Amino acid sequence: MTWTVAVAGATGYAGGEVLRLLAAHPGVTIGALTAASSAGSRLGDHHPHLLSLADRVVQSTEAEVLAEHDVVVLALPHGASGAITAALEQLGDGSGVTPLVIDCGADHRLTSRKAWEAFYGSGYAGAWTYGMPELLHDGEDHARAQRAELTTTRRIAVPGCNVTAVTLALQPGIAAGLIDPSRLTAVLAVGYSGAGKALKPHLTAAEALGSAQPYAVGGTHRHIPEIIQNLEVAGAAAGSTHLSFTPVLVPMSRGILATVTAPMTRALREALDPDATLRAAWETAYGALGSGESLIHLLPEGTWPTTGTVLGTGMATVQVAIDRGADAVVAMCAIDNLGKGTASAALQSLNLALGLEETTAITTQGVAP
To answer: What are phi and psi of 174, to 5 degrees?
Structure first.
């Protein structure tokens, strides 16, 4: 069986990466490519690297066009997806049939209306099934719980890219009760594509090259409540998680390197072998490469994640260690923000929802140098 897929927001970075992966997917046919201000242009004007789609004309983003497909991927700015999905629901009221919709934006990620309104300041569109198959669930079969939800849903919210990096770095320690979530500190080095494609002065080469720029400092970044939401699913007590989160734009086009520090719990301090106990929690969650999570690689001890090794892939590399001088755990994760952070996560969820092999068309081999 072949499914038709439409991509809204096709001219942006996320939309382009989704299309790059879909172009190699054996089970789908790429249908309408839509956008707002760039409607009427050729896709090749925006993504010249997508040769097989370069001559396709970008259409206006209209629910009537999207509704003709089996799957709709939304790669739109936050606040834009809610109206489109509402229109799709209205179109489907008569027949009861609507496309599988996968939203790469933020509109449907948060389960808390209060958190949405506090961090986004617009109307709350409601939560959808969360598109992180590897999300750990407290007290459940970690490898199956989130995947079971994704196989039965028609509405999927893809996680934020920074959220993915911090969650994958830290969640095994939360689930095992080895780290204290009350004082978490996350500092992320983020490639410039993570800031979007808008032409803003601080995103130009003249400002970016040779400079590192922090942004959304002091607890203002919109990904904070989403990270806390995930850690509570993994086992942190509600209201107990406090996160200092600081992203820093660094001179690379894509990639995220997240460094997270967290206090050790008494259980970890008093373990017979704290280092082995800590390592075992990450091994239990992710397994060894080839025998556990296929898109998460727990690196050999003493080896630390780098963004270069995951460039262009749907992989995440993680590592963890104890910093005894600080009485803390240091956990790190490297991802491609457009890969595992967005498009690969969308495809992973699409595959599960359609009953396909989870990693179909997801690239796992990086490039070097």
So the answer is: -65, -50
Distance of CA 302 to the CA centre of its chain: 26
Which helix (H) or strand (E) segment holds residue 178: the answer is none
pLDDT of res. 29: 97
Q: 22, 13, 14, 28: which is closest to 69 by C-alpha? A: 28
Reported pTM:
0.96
The model's confidence at residue 197, banded by pLDDT at 50, 70 and 90, is confident
Task: Look up residue 337 and give its two tokens.
Answer: 């923000």
6, 161, 315, 335: the active-site residue: 161
Q: What is the pLDDT of residues 277-293, one digit of tens each?
A: 999 999 999 986 666 89
C-alpha angle 135-137-141 in degrees, rounded to nearest 5: 100
The closest alpha carbon to 321, from 312, 330, 310, belongs to 330
| 104 carries an active-site annotation | no
Query: Bigger pLDDT: 36 or 151?
Result: 151
Find out whether the peptide bond into 26 is cis, omega within 30 degrees of 0. no
Question: Quick count: other Cβ atoms within 10 Å of Cβ 283?
Answer: 14
- Backbone angles phi and psi of 5, in degrees to 5: -125, 130
Task: Give the orientation angle of helix 161-175 with respect to helix 274-286, to 10 degrees.
Answer: 120
> What does the alpha-carbon distance between residue 54 and residue 44 come to, in Å, rounded to a whole number?
4
Q: What pLDDT sits at residue 221? A: 94
Neighbours of 159 (CB within 10 A): 27
Q: What is the distance between the alpha carbons of residues 169 and 318, in angstroms, rounded to a whole number?
A: 6
Alpha-carbon span 234 to 124, nearest angstrom: 24
Q: How far apart are CA 247 and CA 189, in angstroms?
A: 6
Q: What is the pLDDT of residue 37?
A: 85
Q: Answer for the pair 236, 151: CB distance below 8 angstroms, yes or no.
A: no
Cβ atoms of 329 and 264 closer than 8 Å: yes
Contact 75, 8 (CB under 8 A): yes
| Dihedral (CA of 191, 193, 194, 197) sign | positive
